[in-house]
Amino acid sequence: MREYDHGESAGSRTDHIAQLVKLAGRRPTPNPAQMSAAREAAHGEWARLVRRRIWRAAFRTLAGSLLAASVVIVLVWSWLRPQATTVPADEIATVRTTSGGAVVVTRGDRLTTIGEAGTRLMTGDRIETSTRSRAAFTLAEGIAARLDENTVAVLDAADHLTLERGAVYVDSGATPRAHGLRVETPFGLVRHLGTQFEVRLQNSTLRVRVREGYVAVHTPDALSTAQAGEALVFVRGRPPERQGITTTGPEWTWLIPLAQPFTLDGARVPAFLQWVSREQGWYWEYGDVTMRDRVERIVLHGSIDGLAPDEALSAVLPTCGLAFRLEGNRLIVSAAQAREGS
To answer: Residue 264 in contact with residue 249, Cβ under 8 Å?
Structure first.
């Protein structure tokens, strides 16, 4: 195999390149204007590429920031926004007794039949009674309400009830109070102070009967008031009519099956007489004031479950050596007469 002289070969190649350069002649000098334009074009392209890279980086940073901010906003909004569907309604009343079975329509249109005492009623509950049912419940501060047959009422709040049809009887207790139960009707608002009263809405007529205390009826046209033994009747297109009424008798008997239960065992006679009198629309008094001290020391025992107030009166007083008589709406309590030969 033939060996080449690497040094000579490299020199030969250099000579050949030099000869080629000489044969090509002198290269023309570029036009200065063209060179300036080329430099400006190159610089412009470089600047454009730089700006593009900067914009892309800024866009990615901004997009990331906006995404992070949106996530934070969504989380904060989810935390702060009202959860109306999960907040439970307030318990504002407790069913005391029913007869015939009343129906409660809740805010979610779920039907619940009231079958026993102790059922809790919520804000916004709508109570409906049928032609054979009634219901009684206790509101805030011990205010008691009773619904007659064919009645529809909505519990708007602990101190506000809307009567859409039928009748509601309110007993706010014997002690006057600054705030009671307001009864809203299509005719106006009924307010009271330490009162027993009935509001009945039927056949486009509103009638308010006052059994005890004082009632005010606010209508768009005027303010009307009534006291115990009076009724106000409202008819569309007419001024209100005032009537005298009795505080006891057949028109009040619908309340008896819904009477507030009384715990006899351990109670004293005056408390028992007060309960009977309020349920019957009576006022009680001693026939002889000298017997007050003896009677007020008597402690009662036993139970009156299942007895109406007037039946309980006849069953309890004789066991205490007491008797009673009625004179109009006055219940007079006296000592029982000793039997002959005893």
So the answer is: no
Sequence length of the chain is 342
Amino acid found at 186: P
Residue from 255, 248, 262 nearest 307 by CA: 262
* pLDDT tens per residue, range 118-135: 889 999 999 999 999 999
pLDDT of the residue at 76: 37
pLDDT at 104: 87
Domain assignment of residue 23, yes or no: no
Helix or strand (DSSP H, E) at 91: strand 91-99
CA–CA separation, 342 and 317 (whole Å): 19
**Residues in contact with 176: Cβ distance below 8 Å, sequence separation at least 6, in sequence order:** 193, 194, 213
pLDDT at 2: 45
DSSP-based three-state secondary structure for 101: coil
Domain with 319, as residue range(s), is: 261-335
CATH code, 142: 2.60.120.1440
Domains: count for the chain:
2
pLDDT band with cut points at 50, 70 and 90 for residue 142: confident
Helix, strand, coil shares, percent, the chain, to 5: 35, 35, 35
**Nearest partner of 218 among 243, 196, 199, 202, judged by Cα:** 199
Any idea what the CATH number is for the domain that residue 268 is in?
Answer: 3.55.50.30
Q: Are residues 281 and 247 in the same domain?
A: no
Banded pLDDT at 194 (limits 50, 70, 90): confident
